Amino acid sequence: MFDTILTGVNLPDGRTGMDVGLQGGRIVAIERSLPAEAGEAIDGTGRLLSPAFCDPHFHMDATLSLGLPRMNLSGTLLEGIALWGELRPTLAREALVERALRYCDLAVSQGVLFIRSHVDTSDPRLVTAEALIEVRDLVRPYLDLQLVAFPQDGYFRAPEGVRSLERALDMGLDVVGGIPHFERTMEDGRASVEALCRLAAERGLPVDIHCDETDDPLSRHVETLAAETVRHGLQGRVAGSHLTSMHSMDNYYVSKLIPLMAEARMNVIANPLINIMLQGRHDTYPKRRGLTRVRELMAAGINVALGQDCCMDPWYSMGSADMLEVAHMAVHVAQMGGIEDKARLFDAITVNSAGAMGLEGYGLAVGCKADLVLLQAADVPEAIRQKPTRLLVLRNGKVISRTAPRLPQLSLPGRPPEIDPGRDFRPVHQG
After folding, report:
1. Residue 35: what pLDDT?
2. Which helix or strand (DSSP H or E) is residue 166 part of?
3. Does this UniProt record's set of keywords contain RNA-binding (predicted)?
């Protein structure tokens, strides 16, 4: 007897027509045909069942603040930081909490149940930390929220930056963050990476650094991050986010750098939407794409995850909490259009992101937590291509979001009265 059985679902690994049995909030069986009863039976009708999506890089303290105090007219990273610096002193805890909860509602409806958010600690009031800790507690029943102590204005550069970050960690933030390329000098940036990794080792915390988010091919902080990861025994617990400078680096140097990162077992978190929007702003033509070397990093065995980064804030006027949109952009900008490429990018918003976040019990296997999403698509390539409706979202085996399938009704002579984008448009080679 199961609590729930999902019947006739397809799985990301290519298996089709499978039954998945859930009990006590866990996956307890995956078979072609489960000969058992259940409290609830859900007919998957050949739809794709996936582990819930993970967003390993987001800024929830800034989300939904677009237009405050005004729009980012240049569209650049630096103007976005300047706008946030103007808005930050006016932030109230209640407004921060309200915006964050609204965003979490949207994320859940899109099948995102795991988010790592960077929390700006540059304002000594730490109202951002207070608000996001409150949000973390409020959403815990339905969404896992990790909080990164992030010195937006620079660990050394911001007044009281060092002390404020440590105070935020004392309050209970989960991860040590940094932004070495925004320090005053390259040397200060290098010293900040060393200090932050040492701090994480002393406190037993993971590290997630905004690293080399620049078009400068000579920005070298990821090299320092890899070295400090090994020096402090942090292998597997460190993420380098963005790494956009790698797009512009000399190929010979990268041929040395990637093995160093692999040796350190670093996680890489690329953010295709924001990277393609903000990078290359000083270029005329040709314009650089600004996304790190996703294909090459994956080929080296490095765990590459994809994050959304922003949603309607001073840096990015778009965003919809849709991790499939993130993967969709990665297909284009990383030029990864093959079927196997798409499978790797789907992993980058699911299992790879879960690995970067250090999640336990995540996945689609017997024994994993039943945090799942049923998509109006038959397989992974179609899920990324169509960004389909999330028919069901389950947390601990319970349905927490339900959306009717998109089934356009047609009135066309001689044509079908209804089409199902999740069934009727699969390529022959995927059928």
Report:
1. 87
2. helix 161-171
3. no
Confirm whether 213 is a catalytic residue. yes
**Both ends of the chain: CA-CA distance in Å?**
34
Looking at the DSSP bridge assignments, the partners of residue 306 are 270
Name the band, by pLDDT with cuts 50, 70 and 90, for residue 221.
very high
Same domain, 321 and 417: no
Q: Of 314, 332, 357, which residue is a domain's last?
A: 357
Find the catalytic residue in 79, 194, 213, 325: 213
Say yes or no: 68 and 144 in one domain.
Answer: yes
- Per-residue pLDDT at 204: 98
Distance CA 375, CA 393 (A): 9
Tell me the two tokens of residue 285.
């033509």
* Spatial contact of 226 and 234, defined as CB atoms under 8 Å apart: no
Burial readout 94-133 (b: 16 or more C-beta within 10 A, e: otherwise):
eebbebbeebbebbbbbbbbbbbbbbbbbbeebbbbbbbb
CB 354 within 8 A of CB 363: yes
67 in the same domain as 178 = yes
Which of 357, 375, 404 is the last residue in one of the domains? 357
Question: How many CA atoms within 13 Å lie on the side-chain side of 130?
Answer: 11
**Domain holding 402: CATH number?**
2.30.40.10
